[in-house]
Amino acid sequence: METAPKVNRSSMTARPWKNVHFLPWSQNRQEDVDPLDSGDENRYQDPIANLYDWQRDGRVRRTILLTLTLIPTLIAGLLMSDSMPEHANTITRFATVGLFLILFSWVSAGFWTAMAGFLVLLSGGDKHGITRSMNLPQDATPLRAKSRARTAIVMPICNEDVVRVFAGLRATYESLANTDQPHQFDFFVLSDSYDSDICTAELDAWSSLCRAVGGFDRIFYRRRHRRV
Question: Which of 87, 123, 160, 214 is the most buried (most CB within 10 A)?
Fold first, then answer.
């Protein structure tokens, strides 16, 4: 019985970012541009130009995010410093304000990142989103692009309670089955178990689950070999 599709391995070698600049007005040399990195749906027509757009917009966004993060942080730091008692030790004051700045900048960055995502959703999607690299018609909407993407839900296990694991997997599967796009998800159970009894129980549980919900084409089980 085929419990999982055949492995289709491809290169995962990391490619370095070449000539990366932070400031939005920085320029990249054309010889440092990799056309394969372009994420726009029209990249095959003019990959270099589209990659310049992506890099420029990325620098602008990083600059805006850093600015929006630092300004509230500095203001909050000044207010925090003014609110401390006058008799406070200098070292204690600097340590307290410094720790406050670090923690506040973390919160501020998270807030502005969430706001940016909200504005992107309101505007209809990010033109540099990964789904834009799919071969879609010119009039395709972000929602249509999203509907063509597939999501893999991966559940790694290792000598765990088989009944509990597959009960949770079934609950997740059935909850997604009640959505309007249940066929956009594939489930992969990746087992590192080395106990022979547990391995047999996992395979039986996977088979029973697939028969119960009709998920042989969407729920997969792969036992990864462990070297001892």
Answer: 160
